[in-house]
Amino acid sequence: MIKKNNYAFIDGANLHQGMNYLGWEIDYKKLRVWLTDKFNITIAYIFLGNIPKYGKLYAYLQECGFILIFKEVVYDNTGKPKGNCDADLVLKATQDFYNKSYDNMLLVSSDGDYSSLISFLLSEKRLVGILSPANEKKCSILLKRTGSKIYYISDQKNIIKK
């Protein structure tokens, strides 16, 4: 039985890249409802870089029920934005764990950089699982090796597709 106060921690860039790879768009309202229905998600954080031209998207995500946590963006010498949120996500998930804010956590990412966080939460029996924005082939082997339950967003296409 999945406990009632679960949080989702979503790597926004990883979700976006995964959806580009899969070639279809998410309906974020449907996604938010599905997260609540399937995993009892009460709080869903999306970690992303703050790029002013996406202000309307950010407002829409908030309307859908997501809490946005922004990382300052820097630009490389070609003008490409870089707003890596991995450390921020891990820190917030750890703070919320120690503050007993959630019963269990769901990670939405395919990034192996989160494997130590996943292993820790598994050892504490505080992990719902991982929702991979990629398919099984593209999900990091490091996440797979943790032994966590991995759900694939591609399996939910008929529920959450725009």
TrEMBL record:
Protein's UniProt name: NYN domain-containing protein
User: PANTHER family, alphabetically?
Assistant: SLR0650 PROTEIN, SLR0755 PROTEIN
Q: Which residues are in the NYN domain?
A: 9-139
A Pfam family of the record is NYN
Q: Specify the species.
A: Candidatus Nomurabacteria bacterium RIFCSPLOWO2_01_FULL_33_17
What's a single GO MF annotation on this record? RNA nuclease activity
